[in-house]
Amino acid sequence: MSVLDLATVRPEEGIRAAFEASVELAQAAERWGYTRYWFAEHHNMATIASSATSVLITHIAEHTSTIRVGAGGIMLPNHSPLVIAEQFGTLETLFPGRIDLGLGRAPGGDMAMLRSLRRRPEDSDRFPQDVAELQLLLGPPDPEHAVRAVPGTGTEVPLFILGSSLFGAQLAARLGLPYAFASHFAPAALTEAVSTYRREYVPSPQHPEPYVIAGVNAFVADTEDEAAQWHQAALRQMVIRLARRGVELSEADADAILATPHGDQVRQMARHTLVGSPSSIPAQAAQFARHAQADELIVASNAPSTQARYRTYDLLAQALDLPGRGGIPASA
Predict the structure, then answer these.
(1) What's the pTM value of the predicted model, to 2 decimals?
(2) Does 70 reside within a domain?
């Protein structure tokens, strides 16, 4: 079990508070026994502060000591592979054995953001070549390669391919890399993509067996009713966030939309969600892991407050009996 954090900015608290909440949650996740703590690169989004992903990873790694910290992921078409190799080579040098580098080919923002980054939509077409170049830059020194990442070369930072379609699954299988599927917001191709990845997997020296991480949302509270309320609040905010720019929606408007076929589409986007009290969560988590053929779940929680998010991960650790927390047995 791992944590996916977007450094959520709550208007009443601000960006600095979002970073402080991430530090507090990462330290607690380490105590509770979560495996890794990942941030996702997004840009031009008022409620997400994980845009300078490698900087935020540094901050979290400085304030923890054992949990793996990384990107889930870096949107590689936004960057030169050399720059990413240097950034993550630096991180691996500072925090040896604790850094992960998940790679995605989506832009992590809109067209205006792409123009501001001096990028084009077609830059994503070279994603396989960029991944191969990054592997070369992080691998052993190659006398035939004119460019070295300093730091970076020889650090062998673990790479993960992220995706929500067959493209990422096939690329990860061909390269012999772990695969992380974004089922927490794009669930449509989950089973087909993971089946394709496992069927076509080509073993590599670093990864002789395929390895799947599946994203899942979670709202875990002391009671079923409270968890359901948190879930409904998150769906409401999702509707408001997806509204066209310039359209102001109240919570009542969002609830009305959720009662329409459009609301059904929103619920489908987030259909892989654990909702309940600690007694009902283990069965839900086990069922989803089987459905996703997952070796690991990475959990995102858009709970309605910083405290509710913290409580979700705390109770989830207890419910699943993670190594750092005694609690309800996973077989319950």
Answers:
(1) 0.92
(2) no
